[in-house]
Amino acid sequence: MTADTKATLHEIELKILARRPEHSIEPSLDRIQALTALLGDPQRAYPVIHITGTNGKTSTARMTETLLRARGLRTGLFTSPHLTSMRERICVDGEPLSEERFVEAYEEIEPYLELVDASQPVRLSFFEVFVGMAFSVFADAPVDVAVIEVGMGGTWDNTNVAEGTVAIVTPISIDHARHLGSTVEAIAADKAGIIKPGAIAVIAQQPPGVTDVLLQRAEEVGATVAIQGAEFGVTSRELAVGGQLLGLRGLRGDYDDLFLPLFGAYQAGNAACALAAVEAFAGAAPPSPFAVRSGGDGDSGAAVAGPGRAGTALGFIPWSEPGPLGGELVRQAFGMMSSPGRLEIVRRSPVVIVDSAHNPAGMEASVAALTEAFTFAGLIGILAVSEDKDVPGILDQLEPAVSELVVTSNSSPRSMDAAKLADLAGAVFGEDRVTSTARLDQAIEVAVALADRAGAARDHDGSAPGAAAVLITGSVITAGDARLLLAPPGRQEAADGGEA
Length: 500
Prior knowledge:
By secondary structure, this protein is an alpha/beta fold. It has 16 helices and 20 strands. It folds into two domains: 3-336, UDP-N-acetylmuramoyl-L-alanine:D-glutamate ligase, CATH 3.40.1190.10; 344-496, Mur ligase, C-terminal domain (Protein-Tyrosine Phosphatase, Chain A, Alpha-Beta Complex). Helix 2 packs across helix 4 (99-119) and helix 4 crosses helix 5.
């Protein structure tokens, strides 16, 4: 990259950052529709697999894209937020946009941004600009299929101007309650908006009540559904060195001995959803939806063939052609999968793990995976969270796994002040287990020293084998900041693109 290109890239990043941030929501599709219309509706130039949910969206999106690419398709991938670089949000064939292509993509749509800004009562936001760029880049590539992750919700999310051939709904829990609702049913109703007429909805296991809301939306629009635990799912799972060994039941067949280099039952569930979505995308939809009975219990994901209750809910029955995806192809694709910032080891001696959990449900899943996959003499936590999150709920989930906690702030203006976080953490952990420091780099130094001390003490008295470790968590921003501080640049680039 030339010095001129680098300077132009920096100027563009500043222009985008100067816009309304993505957490400042003005619920309307008017602005993005105006922009995509001026761009020639590029989102209609390729089929879309659309992904919503509360947790697991980005991991599922990356897995889905990897499977599609392994089948020889040219892929587009749009995810958010980014860990270390804005360019991560838009990938073609598994690679983030180059600096030069990012500059070109922005400059191509900049005149249209100005036209929309002038015609609308509210300017386009940071996120809306990225959605427009992604849609345009994917059309120009051109891609065979685009995997699109929502920013927040579904119905009013700016990505929802796309018509998803397949809609994936990952597990739903309470998050962004101010915008989406204070119950899982209300949140599900908003997220269900990405399920479009004639689409296939792939639904992960959900809390009670959520599946019924999603099935109601599918029935209203004439979509078909595949529910984890009924039409597809995880048939076996065991720990393996560097990840886990899975057996999955897809919509078209069973797949055994799949090595997934990621940790946790939740990642196995994400993998099952990705596989089902790619199988659904691989063939034509059945001519009409099938009436089934909704099990009503989201924990089991039950849905069995039979008459509906009041009217019908919609179900999915695998069609006969084509057959399963090639077993070897699927095994190779699973072996390539990665999810940067999700229980990612970024340093050893002591082991330092970064994780993006940012709400109680996500933290619960991460702690369960961490406890299952690792055995440490002790675990020192570093926590930096956004002010608007359920911080007490996050702390409650983290406390049993962490011996000592270092609280700090990340680089986001939304980050909770470390002193305030320390007060909340003290109420859960006890003040003697909490240390506060203003900056993440300082927090890492403190936590590493605590881990070294804990490991040495355990070795000396023989109370536990091995070394202590450090977990850095609480936010995608926190994970991204930690990776910038700890992961070598070459490793960051590889993890952010290619195999993800």
